[in-house]
Specification:
Helix 1 crosses helix 6, helix 10 packs across helix 11 and helix 11 packs antiparallel against helix 12. A 6-stranded mixed β-sheet has the order 1-2-5-3-6-18, with helices on both faces. It is elongated. By secondary structure, it is α/β, with parallel strands linked by helices. The longest helix is centred in the middle third of the chain and has 30 residues. The protein contains 16 helices and 20 strands. The chain starts with 8 loop residues before the first helix and ends with a helix. Bound molecules: zinc ion (ZN). The site of zinc ion has 5 residues, from helix 6.
Length: 532
């Protein structure tokens, strides 16, 4: 009998089901309870009973914690950082089966009785018996289970390398967990004199098309940023429409030009970013009346590969200026037709310009008070707080209106790519060879397209492109920050090798059993062993 706890396909499968049963939807009690539970699970290993100080919990805000577990070989300095997240998305879409969403074995059995309700591809997969269904099976408690298996084996067999299992909350929303862990990873490296050879994430391999069953290894991750705008018009009564300008009218010009705008498409190594779309557009009136809406806001999603925040802000400003120029021209024609003077031209300014203007006009203390008024509202998330700060300042600076104020709303995930690192080239070949022993094949993707926490390591930006993010993010330093300096210190190649699954974030989320419990353990062990 194997005396290791998690070393066989059966025991590893049991470990996964236990991790899944600890429901941990982002921003719930379950997410708060998960870190201590996984820490006590790791304490079942003799190594962490002997070295309790190498197992640590780190505050990640709102009662949540990131966990690090360091296996340190006495002679090794080379270290692999194993990264995973333990939060999951919601489970409402399971309907009547929702109570089973966290119990993969039972759910998978029960689904056989309800298989006519499943989309065809999920039904076919279910009938093969090769898939385990359940929330978090694929995304990504399996990755965590694999890292636990690795650290058990390495510490029991004294592999001459160091491993830091790092598992974090909040990946699905703001990545507060990883942003907190980054600071600790820098500290741990210094405290123990380590050097980080590789950042290894084990997010699942995603299908590229509905029936695609190819497996992928990722040597980087796509970036994402959210340019936003607050539109400030001039109020009037509906009976006198020419005396004002609605914010909706202003917003429509920018949104029309932002959506699907190819200026924001980036291509690198044969891969391209999806085009931008708006994620939100709304006026800020809280109830119906006949005063026209003169404040509105919009939030856009922009993916990036190589661009910095500064470059995206420059492009966003360019599009906003073009949009307002065409608005001003249309509006002028309307004013001539109606024989009115109009409310003036719509200006474009960045948040940093508004802040400078407001500080000069109102003083530092009053600006802080206006910011805090928005920040203290606990029901608002970071996006709403960002927009409300701008709104509070604009109300006091109406001489700037009509205007479109440009800002960034959290979160921001920088893009990372290390495809040309010699170690990554070597490891890719090794993984392809290893997959072949299972009659399987893996392909390389340069940028993981699902957004992941690798964004917060190996930050390279020689042009201080982050400064434009800091100075145009209203909640920066209060409720949101990114440790750019620490991230830049975590230099090292990144790789994502994880199990194959399908339909993450859907009720048909499922994990391929052989990939997860048979192939991945061998492939990851091969990978780690090749590093010493
Ligand atoms: Zn994930």
């Amino acid at each position: 009998m194997d005396k290791l706890l998690w070393n066989t396909p059966e025991t590893l499968r049991n470990l996964l089901c236990e991790l899944v049963s600890w429901d941990s939807i982002t921003l719930t009690e379950g997410e708060r309870l998960f870190a201590p539970k996984v820490a006590s699970k790791l304490q079942e290993l003799a190594y962490f009973r002997e070295h309790p100080n190498l197992l640590e919990l780190h505050d990640a805000g709102l009662g949540r914690h990131a966990v690090t577990a360091l296996y340190k070989h006495p002679e090794a300095t080379e270290t692999v950082v194993l990264i995973s997240h333990f939060d999951t998305v919601q489970t409402e879409e399971y309907g009547v089966l929702e109570p089973l969403a966290y119990f993969p074995e039972q759910l998978t059995k029960k689904l056989l009785e309800h298989k006519e309700d499943l989309p065809e591809s999920a039904r076919i997969d279910l009938e093969t018996g090769k898939y385990l269904f359940g929330r978090g099976t694929m995304d990504m408690k399996m990755g965590l289970a694999l890292h636990m298996q690795l650290i058990e084996k390495a510490s029991t067999e004294n592999w001459p390398i160091n491993l830091i299992l790092t598992t974090v909350p909040d990946e699905e929303v703001n990545s507060a967990g990883m942003r907190a862990a980054v600071i600790e990873l820098v500290r741990i490296r210094e405290e123990h004199g380590l050097s980080y050879k590789l950042f290894l994430n084990s997010e699942p391999s995603f299908s590229q098309k509905p029936f695609d069953i190819a497996e992928y290894i990722y040597s980087g991750t796509i970036g994402k940023i959210m340019p936003a705008a607050l539109f400030y018009g001039k109020e009037t009564h509906v009976g006198e429409p020419m005396k004002g300008m609605t914010a909706n009218y202003i917003a429509s010009f920018l949104t029309q030009n932002m959506e699907w705008n190819p200026l924001f498409r980036e291509t690198d190594l044969g891969e391209s970013t999806p085009l931008p779309v708006s994620l939100q557009q709304k006026d800020l009136k809280s109830s119906y009346d006949t005063q026209t809406p003169y404040r509105a806001a919009a939030l856009y999603n922009v993916f990036m590969l190589k661009r910095t925040a500064a470059e995206v802000m420059d492009l966003f400003e360019q599009v906003a200026v073009e949009s307002m120029t065409s608005l001003n021209a249309s509006y002028k024609v309307i004013c001539e037709r109606e024989q009115v003077a109009g409310v003036g031209e719509v200006k474009v300014l960045r948040y940093e310009q508004l802040l400078a203007h407001a500080t000069k006009k109102l003083g530092v203390a009053e600006v802080e008070r206006l910011k805090n008024e928005a920040l203290q509202n606990d029901e608002w998330d970071d996006r709403e707080k960002s927009l409300r700060i701008v709104d509070n300042l604009m109300i006091q600076c109406q001489e700037l209106a009509p205007a479109t104020v440009l800002l960034f709303a959290p979160p921001y995930y920088p893009a990372v790519n290390t495809s040309d690192d010699p170690l990554i080239i070597e490891l890719l070949e090794l993984m392809q060879k290893s997959a072949k022993t299972f009659d399987n094949k893996v392909d390389q993707i340069h940028y993981f397209n699902g957004i992941c926490d690798l964004s917060y390591v190996n930050y390279t930006d020689d042009s201080n492109g982050w400064a434009a993010f800091e100075s145009n993010t209203p909640v920066w330093g209060d409720t949101y920050s990114i440790p750019f300096e620490d991230m830049a210190q975590l230099k090292g190649p990144v790789l994502n090798v994880g199990p194959f699954g399908k339909d993450a974030h859907q009720r048909t989320e499922r994990l391929h059993v052989d990939s997860a419990f048979v192939e991945m353990p061998v492939m990851l062990e091969t990978l780690i062993k090749s590093l010493y």
